[in-house]
Amino acid sequence: MRTGSEPTTARSALRLRFWLSLWGLIWAVFGTAAFALTGRPGWAAACGVLLLIVTVDMIMVLRHIRQGPHYQPGPDVPPYRPPEPGPPPYYRPRQHRQP
């Protein structure tokens, strides 16, 4: 059920993002070194920029993980307010017309 507050209650799989960042970090270091050793400075610079982006992302992910459940809610925290009983506020019963 959509409540309209999804952007403020969105969650992120931070551990998965950490491991994907680590994987990207390893490949960016490898790519930077490999292209620098083979004499491809353009590709080495591109991998270096990617290395910088991945490093910043990993730092942000680790920061959010260390901030705790306020920024990383666990499975026991509901993602949205429970629905109120009764029909939704935008619901109007259909009115039948006379032919």
Number of E-type strands: 0
Question: What's the pLDDT, averaged over the residues?
Answer: 80
Strand content: under 5%
Task: Enumerate how many helices there are, as a single number.
Answer: 3
Order of helices and strands: HHH
Written account of the structure:
With 99 residues, the protein is mainly alpha-helical. It has 3 helices and no strands. α2 (14-37) packs antiparallel against α3 (41-67). The two termini are 36 Å apart.
What are the defining features of this structure?
mainly alpha, 99 residues, elongated
Q: Can you give me a brief rundown of this structure?
A:
The chain has 99 residues and is an all-alpha fold.
What secondary-structure arrangement, pairings included, does this model have?
Blueprint (H helix, E strand, L loop, with lengths): L5 H4 L4 H24 L3 H27 L32
